[in-house]
Design brief:
Layout: E1 7-10, H1 12-16, H2 26-39, E2 43-48, H3 68-75, E3 83-89, E4 108-113, H4 118-130, E5 134-139, H5 147-160, E6 165-170, H6 177-190, E7 195-200, H7 207-216, E8 221-224, H8 238-245, H9 253-269, H10 276-284, H11 289-294, H12 303-313
Parallel strand pairs: 1-2, 1-8, 2-3, 3-4, 4-5, 5-6, 6-7, 7-8
Helix pairs in contact: 2-9, 6-7, 10-12
């Protein structure tokens, strides 16, 4: 699939960091940065811009905070070819600490928000845009949004925000290709002056298929992670996405090299990816936190009991 408008964003470190409190070594983050940098990928999301008054640095790795020094420690000495992104959560970032783009290593800031917080997301994204950054609004848990509220949020974004890209986010890995197609058409029809992106989770092993469906429906910003690393079931595997796109600007070799040298071993230390508890939360369209807790317990493989608990709590 060759379309010059397509942009690929790697969020290996940012989404993968949700499984280990971002406690990756600077050496590891540097290796990932260099692999992505050498692969021709457009953006790399290195972490969050979390408010240091709310989070203790002793409890998290540096990419939870992505200060300029934190970023300098991992990109120093590399020729920067890809753009750097960070994510900010509503209420978890200090807007007063956002410096002008001209003084930062960061090129893009992505604002993550639920439909109910679209007003706050627009205010924050407009501030960030005024500082010179590229911006996105990632509407989370879209599978839980009431349709009229989602419509109103998209209209408000189109009319009131300066955002560049709006992301369709399947936070719980609950959506099927037909729903992705329907939502993609909705986003494109309302957001006439914006680009649209897709961020898919792999609870039902559909992250790659749903990303392809989004591409077919003219979504141009595509998220992926090396070996699918990410919260719980993980994300669309970057190597699959690059293989599908077959765009000569992308070079899959650096991704395959670090996948073999680092990520196979890493998965033995940090569990992520498709398994039955995560599948069940995807099927039931609920947050995977209960499955993540189950996987840490002695009952981690008691699937029927877990399913019964989920369906009882959700009144299925």
């Amino acid at each position: 699939m060759f379309r010059k408008e397509i942009k690929v964003l790697d969020c290996t470190i940012r989404d993968g960091g949700l499984m280990n409190a971002h406690k990756f070594s600077n050496e590891f983050v540097r290796k990932v940065f260099n692999a992505v940098n050498d692969s021709g990928i457009d953006y790399i999301e290195l972490g969050y811009k979390a408010d240091e008054s709310q989070y203790n640095r002793n409890d998290y790795g540096p990419m939870k905070f992505c200060s300029e020094k934190d970023l300098e420690n991992v990109i120093c000495g590399s020729e920067k070819k890809c753009k750097i992104s960070v994510m900010v959560d509503i209420g978890r970032v200090d807007p007063n600490c956002i410096i002008p783009r001209s003084e930062s290593h960061v090129d893009m800031m992505r604002v993550a928000a639920y439909v109910k917080d679209i007003d706050k997301a627009i205010d924050l994204v407009n501030l960030i845009k005024s500082k010179g950054y590229e911006t996105t609004i990632n509407i989370m848990a879209v599978s839980h949004a009431r349709e009229h509220e989602l419509d109103e949020a998209l209209i408000q974004i189109e009319e009131e925000s300066a955002v560049d890209v709006v992301y369709l986010v399947d936070s719980f890995g609950a959506l099927y290709s037909e729903q992705i197609a329907y939502l993609a058409k909705k986003y494109k029809s309302i957001l006439k002056t914006r680009e649209v992106g897709i961020h898919a989770h792999n609870n039902q092993q559909l992250a790659f298929a749903n990303t392809i469906e989004a591409i077919i429906n003219n979504i141009n910003y595509l998220d992926g992670t090396i070996y699918g690393i990410g919260r719980a079931a993980g994300n669309c595997p970057l190597e699959l996405l690059l293989g599908f796109l077959k765009n000569p600007k992308f070079n899959i070799r650096p991704v395959l090299e670090i996948l073999g040298s680092d990520f196979v071993a890493l998965q033995k230390e940090i569990e992520w990816g498709y398994n039955i508890p995560y599948m069940l939360t995807g099927v039931l369209d609920v947050h995977p936190r209960a499955a993540m807790e189950l996987r840490k317990s002695e009952k981690k493989d008691e699937y029927l009991g877990f399913y019964n608990k989920l369906t009882t709590e959700a009144n299925f």
